[in-house]
Amino acid sequence: MYELGFLDEFLKLPHQALNKINACINETITPIADLTALPTQCKFIAFMPQWDFLNFIAEQAKKYPSFQLCMATEATGLVETNGVITGVTAKTATADITVSADLVIAADGRFSTVRDLAGMHVTDKGVPIDVLWLRLSKQATDVSATLGRIRGNRMMIMIDRGQYWQCGVIIAKNGLNELKQQGLAAFRAYLVALAPFLIDRVDEITDWEQVKLLTVQINHLKHWHRPGLLCIGDAAHAMSPAGGVGVNLAIQDAIATANLLAEKLRTDATINESDLHRVQQRREWPMRVIQNLQAFIHKRIGLGSLETKQTSLPMPVKLLRHWPLLQRLPARVIGIGLRPEHIQTKDAWHTS
Ligand SMILES: Cc1cc2nc3c(=O)[nH]c(=O)nc-3n(C[C@H](O)[C@H](O)[C@H](O)COP(=O)(O)OP(=O)(O)OC[C@H]3O[C@@H](n4cnc5c(N)ncnc54)[C@H](O)[C@@H]3O)c2cc1C
């Protein structure tokens, strides 16, 4: 946002700023990441609803003369000419349309239609968890010092949204049916075991309709491209919620794509597969390191089994407690990433 020149306007949107990440592990509040010393403009994470973030980006993008956003338009097919992808077909509320393109970029997430239509298959790492997404009211006396709550082998993320808590309850993969069979009362008790202060409001959950299942995957494509097509973000490599870095990686993929390809596209030069491969080469190793880290985390915490067994603090957490400087390391991975990307195309687009 800072590099694009939008930061001041962006921070006018309602948000919660978090400069230290704590977790509550077996009722002990313990520091995980300290963002206050990050070598970047904003030394905090800004939490805001996704729609505010996306609407803001769309409004800013509309200021670019060559930008066009088609809302409620679903890519449904690929146009292929002599083995090269040259566009997509799409469905709008009123018509079927065709969009021709020098380059199609599939940024349509972990269930990517475009990737599937191109016959590209992901290698799955296998994740043992899913997430249940629900809201509970927030009260003036609540302390919002912690982002994650772990008890035994259960885990829940609690994001302070001002008026309410946005909760992400980690459960075993395909475990929702088992929870449903045990009933809402047992589920409410499950939540209270993780966060005892919720006891006075878990009754707000009166129907499973209030509990959304978000399926989690970790996977990646071997080749992110085909002639005329490049996959980025989750379409190329689905990230799990662990560490809250999937959005960063997707945005960094987009910046790297622009840095490496925009000038060629602007001057009407042909983009060949070796150009597309340069994007994969640049972004692949940070993605792989983070996916391995996420898989490691999933093996150890958040399996969400119904038995709660008390354990002492894990060794890495003990180290973070005793050596506060170490908290800068997770802060860097979360806040900046392993291979930060910087916008190099701003002037080119302004003058186009
Ligand atoms: C439960 C869960 C929680 C997570 N929590 C976090 C977190 O807190 N922080 C974090 O950084 N990451 C988190 N992640 C990971 C993060 O969501 C992804 O890594 C990130 O959103 C990927 O961004 P993306 O733009 O590639 O895909 P997405 O964010 O999935 O965006 C894809 C877009 O494409 C659109 N689309 C799909 N199909 C079509 C089509 N056929 N035509 C047109 N448009 C289409 C979709 O509507 C969507 O707008 C979480 C993941 C999961 C599963």
Describe this protein's structure.
This protein is an alpha+beta fold and 352 residues long. It has a domain at 129-172 and 174-215. 31% of the residues lie in helices and 25% in strands. The chain contains 10 helices and 17 strands. It has helices at residues 7-10, 50-61, 113-117, 176-182, 184-194, 246-266, 273-300, 315-322, 328-335, 346-351, and strands spanning 16-18, 20-25, 28-34, 45-47, 74-81, 84-91, 96-100, 104-106, 122-124, 129-137, 148-151, 154-160, 164-172, 212-215, 219-221, 225-226, 229-231. The strands form 5 sheets. The protein has a 7-stranded mixed sheet. Strands 5-6-7 form a 3-stranded antiparallel sheet. Strands 8-17-16 form a 3-stranded mixed sheet. A hairpin with a 2-residue loop joins strand 2 and strand 3. Helix 6 packs antiparallel against helix 7 (273-300). The structure holds flavin-adenine dinucleotide (FAD). Flavin-adenine dinucleotide (FAD) binds next to strand 5 and helix 6. The site of flavin-adenine dinucleotide has 21 residues, from strand 5 and helix 6.
